[in-house]
Amino acid sequence: MQKALNLAKKAEALGEVPVGAVLVKNDQIIGEGFNQPITKADPSAHAEIIALREAGQLLQNYRLVDTTLYVTLEPCAMCAMALVHARIKSVIFATNEPRAGAGGSLYQLLDNPSHNHQIEIGSSVLKSESSKLLKAFFSSRRKNSKSPNISF
Fold first, then answer.
1. Distances, alpha carbon 16 to alpha carbons 32, 67, 106, 108, in Å
2. Which of 66, 68, 74, 112 is nearest to 93 (CA)?
3. Would you call 129 a catalytic residue per the annotation?
4. Arithmetic mean of pLDDT, 80-85
5. Are 72 and 96 a contacting pair, CB within 8 Å?
6. Which residue of 16, 71, 97, 137 could cross-link 11, Cys pair, CB 3.0 to 4.6 Å?
7. Using CA atoms, how far apart are residues 120 and 118, in angstroms rounded to an integer?
8. In angstroms, rounded to a whole number, what is the distance separating the alpha carbons of residues 99 and 105?
9. Which strand (E) or helix (H) includes residue 127?
10. Could you say which of 12, 16, 32, 48 is catalytic?
11. Distance separating alpha carbons of residues 108 and 96, to the nearest angstrom
């Protein structure tokens, strides 16, 4: 989780929401990512998705069985369903996301019995550190009133 937290700080340095993710198989990192939707102009460039893509390329497989994802924030619905489809074994997240969390805070998608695959869920690893990073980021954003470069 410490590696994921370090990746979250890279996202923060780019002005992105500070979320980092590390995917592990057999005690080896096979994929990692940090939030980059603004930087990449890609709404799907969440930390989890980037880590999944990297791991899929490394393993040359879209099924990432027997893997564990460590992520600093509870996955959103988009990421949760990508994790389910990839057949991730377990997800450990640092802090809950009460507004959009899909690992139990708002939605229950990771281990939903109606899906053809359920993911084991763990939480609160480095919760304080991750929570502080996120709170400081959003507090700073509110103070500066700067929004991302968005054009309509």
1. 16, 26, 23, 26
2. 74
3. no
4. 98
5. no
6. 16
7. 7
8. 8
9. helix 127-144
10. 48
11. 12
Residue tagged 């959103």 (tokens): 76
3-state helix/strand/coil string of 23-40: EEECCEEEEEEECCHHHH
> Bridge partners of 48?
none
Q: Is the dihedral of CA 104, 110, 111, 112 positive or negative?
A: positive
Tokens 């369903």: give the residue.
81
Q: What is the DSSP letter of 117?
A: -
Is residue 152 scored above 50 in pLDDT?
A: no
How many angstroms separate the CA atoms of 96 and 120, rounded?
15
Contacts of 152 (CB under 8 A, 6+ apart): none
Average model confidence (pLDDT) for the chain?
95
Residue showing tokens 């791991």: 55
Taking the whole predicted model, whether its pTM rises above 0.85 is answered as yes
Residues 81 and 30 sit within 8 Å (Cβ to Cβ):
no
Handedness of CA 34, 26, 64, 69 (dihedral sign): negative
